[in-house]
Amino acid sequence: MNDTEQQLRDDLRATAPQPRPEFAARLERRVEAGFKPAKPARAPRRRINLWAPSIALACTALIAVVIAVAGSTTSSDDLVGGSSGGGDSALLSTGDDDSASSGGSAEAPPAPPAAAEDQADRPRALALTPDSNSGRGRGDDRVVERRTALDLETNADDFSEATDDVLRVADDNDVIVQRSNVSQEGGKGFARYDLRVPASRLDDTLAALSRIAHVTSRTASSEDITRAYVSATDRLDDARSERRALLKALEKADTDVEAEAIRGQIRLARARIALAQRDVDALQRRADRARVTVTVRSTGKKSEGGAWTPGDALHDSVRILEVAAGVAVVTAAALSPFALLAFFTVLGGRTVRRRRREAALG
Amino acid sequence: MGITLAATAPATEAAAATFADLYRATFADVYAYVATIVTDRSAAEDVTAQAYERAYRKRRSFDARRGSERAWIFGIARNAALDELRRRSRSATLVAEPPDDVLVAHDEVAVRRATVRAALDQLAPRDRELIALKFHGGLSNAELAKVLGMSESNAGTRVHRAVTKLREACA
């Protein structure tokens, strides 16, 4: 450092503006007092609680996890319930035995008092006549045969129990198991049951069957057999009327030859009666008992049910953490544009403010 | 040609344990710097007081890892001074006050210092600020770089250029 530079340094230091003593003293007092009297007291600035958004985010994530876990655990139950419910609503309802009987009685032609044996042979009243449950409001009495196919699916561990339950439901509801076929090999199994379910208990039986396992399919159909039934009953009535007439003629027969001829006609009439009665009974059975085909299939997978073990707890914990991580990632992805926008806004604000200040020097 | 001018004696940061100590260690230098920038005595007093009040309010935000206390207080004072200049530019034309001491051109030293002051006033505001920070404020190049938001080497280069201009103005 030469003399000229030192001299310039000294001159600059010497020419530095000096504060007035009264200003220095006044500011010294303010500093000592902590600048309290310098300005009126400001309203306390509200501090931003950085925990609040974190807590809100955590609560949101927790709620989402609970909803997700609850949804995953109840989905299978809902599916079964939904299937059965939908099936019930779509199911063609059957008539009631009592109402069918009373309706049939009203429709049945009055029996001649003299024909006591005919009274016993009268066909039973029309079954399933008013379709009250279906709500379709048919005014006339119809004879309808119901058919329902129900497909169930179960895990390998639950297959045997499911097939047992089908039989238990059949016993509880007075169901006739017309045919059954059960096979199981390895982890997979298949069972098929052809059931004859009392029409009056069809809804309850189907509901009970649907609760046994997961319902994969449920179809319902009906066949109107009224014409065939009426035809059969008409033939039966005609045959009986003919027999009654022949019996009266037999009473009035004068000769043995004539009587023998009438007896032969009576035998033919009885045969026709038996034939017609058989047809009526067959139709009656079709109407009285709905055909229900139940199939049970095993998926081959092991059941996840049973006691809640520590392994299950670990699995659930991992699952919850996975869901929570997923929620966090989705939340971060959703918020990242806003965070970037806020970041660049703050950055831009600082830059603009700095440039404006620097511009004051220009 | 390198920079050979030395800064004024640095403030003793070790002694500035409290804010009052910091105030006492820096007050004169901060005032000199601010007065050189705003060229108005009353405005310089207001800005200086405002700068120390701001620093007092924000004293808990000071981070020693980001620079010295001296650089910190000068940064606050600089922002306050620039805000004042911006306010003035919006409201009225800046009129510099005449110096307090009326020069009697008999003393050689007084004449030389008056020349230096006049040369300083003729410098561009940015150069004048650099001279004020370096020689009135007594900042090192590192501290000066922190205050101006630039690298230390860039700060040294700019100070050197400003001093060269000052010399030329004095010649």
Structure description:
The complex is a heterodimer of chains A (362) and B (171). Chain A is an alpha+beta fold. Chain A has helices at 3-14, 21-32, 51-90, 97-107, 116-121, 159-172, 202-210, 226-251, 256-288, 310-361; strands spanning 144-154, 176-185, 188-198, 214-224, 289-298. Chain A has a 5-stranded mixed β-sheet with strand order 2-3-5-1-4. In chain A, strand 2 and strand 3 (188-198) form a beta hairpin. In chain A, helix 3 (51-90) runs antiparallel to helix 7 (202-210) and helix 8 packs antiparallel against helix 9 (256-288). Chain B is mainly α. Chain B is built from 7 helices and no strands. Chain B has helices at residues 19-38, 41-57, 69-91, 108-122, 125-136, 141-148, 152-170. In chain B, helix 1 packs parallel to helix 3 (69-91), helix 4 crosses helix 7 (152-170) and helix 5 packs across helix 7 (152-170). Chain B starts with 18 loop residues before the first helix and ends with a helix. Residues 1-17 of chain B have low confidence and may be disordered. Classes of the chains: A alpha+beta (362), B mainly alpha (171). Chain A binds chain B through residues 1-2, 5, 7-9, 11-20, 23-24, 27-28, 30-32, 34-35, 38-39, 354, 356-362, and chain B through 4-6, 8, 19-20, 23-24, 27-29, 31-32, 35-37, 41, 44-45, 48-49, 52-53, 56-57, 79, 82-83, 85-86, 89, 112-113, 116-117, 120, 125-126, 129, 131, 135-136, 149, 163, 166-167, 170.
Provide key terms for this protein.
heterodimer; A: 362 residues; alpha+beta; 5-stranded mixed sheet; 10 helices; 5 strands; rod-shaped; B: 171 residues; mainly alpha; 7 helices
Short note summarizing the structure:
Chain A contains ten helices and five strands, in the order αααααβαββαβααβα. With 362 residues, chain A is of the alpha+beta class.
